[in-house]
Amino acid sequence: ETNMRYSAEARLQGVIDAAAAHPGIELTPLSIQRGLGESNAALNAVLNASPSITAFCFEDDEMAAPVLYRLRQYGRRVPQDISIIGFDDSTLSAAVGLTTLHQDPFAMGVAAGHMVLDAIAGKSIEPAFVRPDTPLILRETTAPPAATAASAQA
């Protein structure tokens, strides 16, 4: 048995920790089931419950990309009114200009392969989970919140 934490849980905890370190940031984690119907229902609920929301941070780019379209239906402009961030740096994210966190699946595979070979050779594979580098790739879907941008210009 390992003490490995799954990356999605670690991502969420990282966002929670970052928000807690910045007074004034209100974070509402949501669990959204996969599928267009569920994502649309969650988006509707969030926007109706909190019209002052300034950003969405998604578990992956696949969940973030459809929100760009849906926000336009609500009359929200990205990034002027609301920012969107994904995770994975998929081909889709580059095509739609989505700000995202980059993962290198090849490097992750190489590291996993080395761990497997070490395990086969009877070597220790601690730590069982290695957190990969995930640089932020800034594109067109993020900007300072409108209130912050307005006060910076004053």
The second-level CATH architecture of the domain at 7-19 and 32-104 and 133-143 is: 3-Layer(aba) Sandwich
Strand order of the largest sheet: 1-2-3-4
The helix-strand sequence is: HHEHEHEHEH
Could you name the CATH homologous superfamily of the domain at 7-19 and 32-104 and 133-143? Response regulator
Q: How can the largest sheet be summarized?
A: 4 strands, mixed
CATH topology name of the domain at 7-19 and 32-104 and 133-143, in short, is Rossmann fold
What sort of overall outline do the alpha carbons produce when their principal axes are compared? elongated
Q: Rg from C-alpha positions? A: 18 Å
Fraction of helical residues? 40-55%
Task: Summarize the structure in words.
There is one protein chain. By secondary structure, the protein is an alpha/beta fold. The protein has a domain at 7-19 and 32-104 and 133-143: Response regulator (Rossmann fold, 3-Layer(aba) Sandwich). The chain has 6 helices and 4 strands. It has helices at residues 7-20, 36-49, 61-73, 91-96, 105-120, 146-153, and strands spanning 55-57, 83-88, 99-102, 136-137. The chain has a 4-stranded mixed sheet with strand order 1-2-3-4, with helices on one face. Strand 2, helix 4 (91-96) and strand 3 (99-102) form a beta-alpha-beta unit. Helix 2 (36-49) packs across helix 3. The chain is elongated. The chain starts with 6 loop residues before the first helix and ends with a helix. Mean pLDDT is 81; it is low at 1-5. It comes from Bifidobacterium longum. Pfam families: Peripla_BP_3. Keywords: DNA-binding, Transcription, Transcription regulation.
